[in-house]
C-alpha cells in the first residue's frame, strides 16, 4: 500500500481502522483536504484516470488505409499501367491512391478526435468534501486523502476505505464477477489475505452503488486502483463494425468480384479478337478503374462522424458512431417523465397537513414564497413536517438555487425554507443515526435521529417519506389539529386528498413520524422499525412540462413513433400528465401489467401509452416485449433503476444530470435532459441514413453504367472495346462524381422526413427495390452514353481523340451531374427547394467538363477533342433524359403510395 507521501506500508488498508487510514493519508474525515493540498497531490499523483493504450500514429493509420482492398486494387492498376508504358495513367492513379489514403487517414483521425471530444463531455462526477464543504467535481481530479460521499446510483470514482455507511451495497460484477450486490460497512477486517470480493470495508473504482449511503476516504486513484491494475494487463479491443458498415463492406466485396469478373471477360474477349496484349490490358485497366467503388467505406464513416457532430451540437452525445444509424430506425420511445418531459425543477404546489389544505407559492428552487390557507384558521405548527423535509432527504440547495442531489428532495428543502427551517443547520443539530435509503422496491426512505426530549434527556425519532400508499400501510395514527388520531378514522379523508392531488397531475409524497420511548437505542435493523408511524401529511409536487415536450411528442407521433411514458409516479398522476402531453390512449399501473402474461400485454400495448408505479423489472419487460414485436426501442432514464431497461433498449438514452450508472448503460446521453432533443436526434438519424442510401444509390448507378458500357463495347467490338479511355474514367470518378456526392452530403433533410413511418431495420440497403433502381438508373446512363458511339460509327478511333468518344464522355459527365442533383432525395423530387446550394456546387463539375473538352492542355491530358454546337446540344439533350426519367419514376412511385394510402 502506498501512502500520500510516496512511501509504502505493508499493512493493507482494509485491515486498519478508519482513524488509522485517515491519519495515513493525512486528511480530515469531517473537513476533507484543503483545495491547495488537493492541487498539490493532483500534481504529484496525476489525474484519476485509467491510462488508455496509445493512439495509433498517423503512419499506422495511413498504412491501414493503404491496405484497404480498394486501394490495393488501384495500386495494382497503377503498377500495370507503368509496366505497359501508360505513364500518365500510372502517375494519375498513383496520385489518386495517395489522395485516397490522405483523405481516409484524415477522416479516421478526425472521427476519432470527434469521439474523444464527445467522451470528454461524459467525465463522471464525484461528490467530495474539501475545505469543509460538499462539492461536486470531475472524478479525474480526485486524489488520495479526499473524503467522498456516495449514494445509490453513483459510480464509485476511486478506491476508498469506508468511514461511515448506512445499508450500503455495491455491485462489483465488473471487478470480481460477483453478480449479487455486496453489503458494505466500515468494520475492520483482520485477515490481510482476505480476497478482493470479501473486502467489505472498501469500495472500488467503477463499481456501482445500488443501495444506501456512505462517506469514504480515497486511498488509490488512476492506475493505482484495482481497476487500473487490471487495465494495465489488458490490450485494447478492436471496435466492431456496425451492421450497416458490415453490409456495405460485403457489398463492396461483391462489387470487387463483379469488377474483376468483368475485367476478365473483357481481356479474354480482346485476346480472342486478336487485339494486342497491351491494348487489352489497358482496356481491362479502364474497366477496373470504372468498377472499383473506392470511396464507399470512407463516405459512410464520414457521414456517421458528421452525424455525431451534428447530434453533439444539438446536445445529444452518442458513444459510438454506429449508434447514429440506429436512431433513424427508432419506432418506439419509452420515456421517463421527470427531467425528460418535464423541467426537472420540482416545486411543492399544494400541501395537506394535519387534515388541512395549504397552497405554496414560488417556483423552482428559489427559497422565497408563502404557505397560505383559508382565512380565519390558526397558523399551524409545521415543526414535525419541517423536520421530515430536511432530515429525511440528502439534497442541498444553495441560496442561488444550485442543487446537489435529487430534484424532488430539493423541492422539499425549499419548502422547509419557506417554513423557516434551514436544512444545513437542522442536519447539524440532529445528525443521522441510522437510515433506510430509498429503494424503488419498497418506495420509501426512513431516517433515525436523536433529539432532546421533554424531560431533558434524549429520544429517538424516526422520520419517513415515500409513496402515500406504502407509507399509509405502515401508519397506525395520523396528526390532526386536535392531536393524534387512529389512522382508520381518517384513512378515507387521506385517500381522497391523495386522489385529488394526483388527479391534478401532482407527484404526491407522504410524510410520517415515530417517537420512541426515551432510552431506546438506535435499531440494528432500521427496516424492521418502519412501522407504527403517525402520518403528518401529504405534499403535492409539480414538475412543469418542458415547453418543447408537447410539440416533440406531436412530431414523434406524426413520424409513426409510438411514445409511451413510463414512470414511478402514481398511475393517476401519470395519466393526467400524459393527457397534457397528448400521448395516446390507455394507462396502466405496474401491478396491472404484472398481472398480465406476455401475450396479453403484447396484445394490449397498442392501446397503452402511460404506465405508472412501475418497477425496474416492468421497464425491462416492456422494452423486451416491444422488441419482440419488431420495434426499435429508444428508452430514456436518469435513475439507477432505469439502467437495466436502458441496456436492453436498442438506443438507451441517459440524462446528462442522471446517475452515473445510467450513463454507463446508455448508448446516448442527452446533455440538456430534454425529450425534444431526443426527437431531434431521431430526425438527424433519419437524415443521415437517408444520405447514406442516396449516396449508395448514386454510386451504384454510376458503377453499373460504366460496367455495362465497357462490357457491351467489348462484346460487340464498339471502338475496339474502348468506349472511354482510362484517363476519362478517372476524370469522371474523381473530378466529376465527387461534386454530386458533396451535394448529397450537404443537402438539408426534407421537410417531410418526420411525416414518414420509421424504416424497417430488416430491410437492407441492397434490397430488391433498391437494386432494381440501381440497375434502372445505371442502365439509363449507360444507354445515353452509348448513343454517340452508335450514331457516329465512322468517326470512331481507339487510338486518336475523336468526337463520338468525347461526346460519350460529356454525356456520362453531364448525366452524373444532373443525375446526382435529382438522386439527392428519394422519393421526394430532387428539384424541390432548397436547390441553390446544390446548383452552386454542381456548376463546378459542369465547368470542368466544358474545360476538359474545349481547353487545349486539358484536351491533351484527358484525350478529348472540341465539339461543335450541334454535338453539344445532342450531349445536353441525351444527358437531360437522365434527370427527366428519374423524376418521372419517382413521381410514379409517389402517386402509387398516395393511391394506396
Structure commentary:
With 901 residues, this protein is of the alpha+beta class. 48% of the residues lie in helices and 17% in strands. Strands 10, 11, 12, 15, 16, 17, 18, 19, 20 and 21 form a ten-stranded mixed β-sheet that branches. Strands 8-27-26-25-9-22-24-23 form an eight-stranded mixed β-sheet, with helices on both faces. Strands 1, 2, 3, 4, 5, 6 and 7 form a seven-stranded antiparallel β-sheet that branches. The longest helix is centred in the last third of the chain and has 41 residues, at 675-715.
Short note summarizing the structure:
This protein is an alpha+beta fold and 901 residues long. The protein contains 31 helices and 27 strands.
Amino acid at each position: 500500500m502506498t501512502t500520500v507521501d510516496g512511501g509504502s506500508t505493508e499493512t493493507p488498508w482494509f485491515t486498519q481502522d478508519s482513524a488509522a487510514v485517515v491519519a495515513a493519508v493525512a486528511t480530515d474525515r469531517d473537513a476533507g483536504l484543503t483545495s491547495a493540498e488537493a492541487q498539490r497531490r493532483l500534481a504529484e499523483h496525476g489525474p484519476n484516470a485509467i491510462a488508455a493504450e496509445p493512439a495509433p500514429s498517423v503512419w499506422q493509420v495511413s498504412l491501414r488505409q493503404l491496405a484497404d482492398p480498394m486501394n490495393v486494387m488501384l495500386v495494382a492498376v497503377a503498377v500495370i499501367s507503368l509496366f505497359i508504358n501508360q505513364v500518365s495513367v500510372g502517375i494519375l492513379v498513383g496520385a489518386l491512391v495517395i489522395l485516397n489514403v490522405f483523405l481516409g487517414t484524415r477522416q479516421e483521425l478526425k472521427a476519432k478526435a470527434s469521439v474523444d471530444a464527445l467522451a470528454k463531455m461524459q467525465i463522471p462526477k464525484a461528490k467530495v468534501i474539501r475545505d469543509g464543504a460538499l462539492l461536486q467535481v470531475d472524478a479525474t481530479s480526485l486524489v488520495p486523502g479526499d473524503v467522498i460521499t456516495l449514494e445509490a446510483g453513483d459510480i464509485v470514482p476511486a478506491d476508498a476505505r469506508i468511514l461511515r455507511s448506512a445499508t450500503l451495497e455495491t455491485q462489483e460484477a465488473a471487478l470480481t464477477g460477483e453478480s449479487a450486490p455486496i453489503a458494505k460497512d466500515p468494520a475492520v477486517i483482520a485477515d490481510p489475505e482476505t480476497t478482493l470480493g470479501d473486502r467489505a470495508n472498501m469500495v472500488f473504482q467503477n463499481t456501482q452503488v445500488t443501495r444506501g449511503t456512505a462517506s469514504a476516504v480515497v486511498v488509490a486513484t488512476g492506475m493505482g486502483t484495482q481497476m487500473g491494475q487490471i487495465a494495465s494487463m489488458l490490450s485494447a479491443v478492436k471496435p466492431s463494425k456496425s451492421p450497416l458498415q458490415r453490409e456495405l463492406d460485403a457489398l463492396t466485396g461483391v462489387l470487387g468480384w463483379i469488377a474483376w469478373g468483368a475485367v476478365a471477360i473483357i481481356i479474354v474477349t480482346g485476346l480472342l479478337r486478336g487485339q494486342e496484349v497491351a491494348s487489352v490490358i489497358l482496356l481491362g485497366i479502364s474497366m477496373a478503374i470504372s468498377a472499383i467503388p473506392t470511396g464507399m467505406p470512407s463516405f459512410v464513416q464520414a457521414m456517421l462522424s458528421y452525424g455525431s457532430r451534428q447530434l453533439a451540437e444539438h446536445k445529444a452525445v452518442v458513444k459510438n458512431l454506429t449508434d447514429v444509424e440506429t436512431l433513424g430506425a427508432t419506432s418506439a420511445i419509452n420515456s421517463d417523465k421527470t427531467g425528460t418531459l418535464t423541467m426537472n425543477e420540482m416545486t411543492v404546489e399544494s400541501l395537506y397537513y394535519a387534515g388541512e389544505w395549504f397552497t405554496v407559492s414560488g417556483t423552482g428552487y428559489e427559497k422565497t414564497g408563502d404557505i397560505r390557507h383559508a382565512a380565519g384558521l390558526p397558523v399551524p405548527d409545521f415543526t414535525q413536517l419541517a423536520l421530515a423535509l430536511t432530515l429525511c432527504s440528502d439534497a442541498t440547495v444553495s441560496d442561488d438555487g444550485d442543487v446537489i442531489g435529487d430534484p424532488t428532495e430539493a423541492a422539499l428543502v425549499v419548502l422547509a425554507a419557506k417554513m423557516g427551517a434551514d436544512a444545513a443547520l437542522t442536519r447539524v443539530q440532529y445528525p443521522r443515526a441510522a437510515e433506510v435509503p430509498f429503494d424503488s422496491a419498497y418506495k420509501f426512505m426512513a431516517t433515525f435521529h436523536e433529539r432532546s426530549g421533554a424531560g431533558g434527556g434524549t429520544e429517538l425519532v424516526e422520520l419517513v417519506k415515500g409513496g402515500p400508499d406504502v407509507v399509509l400501510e405502515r401508519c397506525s395514527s395520523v396528526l390532526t389539529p386536535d392531536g393524534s388520531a387512529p389512522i382508520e378514522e381518517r384513512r378515507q379523508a387521506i385517500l381522497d386528498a391523495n386522489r385529488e392531488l394526483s388527479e391534478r397531475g401532482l407527484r404526491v409524497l407522504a410524510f410520517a413520524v415515530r417517537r420512541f420511548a426515551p432510552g431506546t437505542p438506535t435499531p440494528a435493523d432500521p427496516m424492521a422499525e418502519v412501522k407504527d408511524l403517525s402520518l403528518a401529511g401529504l405534499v403535492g409536487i409539480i414538475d412543469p412540462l418542458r415547453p418543447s415536450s408537447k410539440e416533440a411528442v406531436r412530431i414523434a407521433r406524426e413520424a409513426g413513433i409510438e411514445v409511451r411514458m413510463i414512470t414511478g409516479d402514481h398511475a393517476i398522476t401519470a395519466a393526467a400528465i400524459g393527457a397534457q402531453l397528448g400521448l395516446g390512449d390507455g394507462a396502466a399501473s405496474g401491478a396491472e401489467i404484472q398481472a398480465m402474461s406476455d401475450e396479453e400485454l403484447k396484445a394490449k400495448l397498442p392501446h397503452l401509452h402511460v404506465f405508472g408505479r412501475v418497477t425496474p423489472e416492468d421497464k425491462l419487460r416492456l422494452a423486451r416485449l416491444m422488441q419482440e414485436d419488431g420495434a426499435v426501442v429508444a428508452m430514456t432514464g436518469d435513475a439507477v433503476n432505469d439502467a437495466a431497461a436502458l441496456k436492453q433498449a436498442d438506443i438507451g438514452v441517459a440524462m446528462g444530470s442522471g446517475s452515473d450508472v445510467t450513463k454507463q448503460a446508455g448508448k446516448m446521453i442527452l446533455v440538456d435532459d430534454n425529450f425534444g432533443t431526443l426527437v431531434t436526434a431521431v430526425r438527424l438519424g433519419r437524415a443521415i441514413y437517408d444520405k447514406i442510401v442516396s449516396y449508395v444509390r448514386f454510386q451504384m448507378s454510376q458503377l453499373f453504367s460504366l460496367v455495362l458500357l465497357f462490357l457491351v463495347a467489348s462484346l460487340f467490338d464498339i471502338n475496339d472495346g474502348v468506349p472511354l479511355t482510362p484517363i476519362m474514367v478517372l476524370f469522371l470518378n474523381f473530378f466529376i462524381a465527387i461534386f454530386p456526392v458533396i451535394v448529397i452530403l450537404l443537402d438539408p433533410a426534407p421537410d417531410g422526413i418526420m411525416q414518414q413511418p420509421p424504416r424497417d431495420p430488416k430491410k437492407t440497403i441492397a434490397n430488391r427495390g433498391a437494386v432494381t433502381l440501381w440497375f434502372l438508373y445505371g442502365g439509363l446512363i449507360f444507354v445515353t452514353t452509348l448513343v454517340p458511339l452508335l450514331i457516329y460509327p465512322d468517326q470512331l478511333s481507339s487510338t486518336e481523340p475523336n468526337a463520338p468518344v468525347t461526346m460519350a464522355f460529356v454525356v456520362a459527365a453531364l448525366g452524373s451531374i444532373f443525375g446526382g442533383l435529382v438522386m439527392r432525395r428519394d422519393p421526394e423530387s430532387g428539384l424541390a427547394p432548397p436547390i441553390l446550394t446544390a446548383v452552386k456546387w454542381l456548376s463546378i463539375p459542369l465547368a470542368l467538363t466544358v474545360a476538359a473538352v474545349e481547353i487545349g492542355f486539358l484536351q491533351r491530358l484527358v484525350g478529348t477533342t472540341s465539339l461543335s454546337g450541334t454535338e453539344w446540344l445532342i450531349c445536353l439533350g441525351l444527358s437531360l433524359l437522365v434527370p427527366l426519367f428519374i423524376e418521372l419514376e419517382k413521381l410514379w412511385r409517389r402517386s402509387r403510395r398516395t393511391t394506396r394510402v
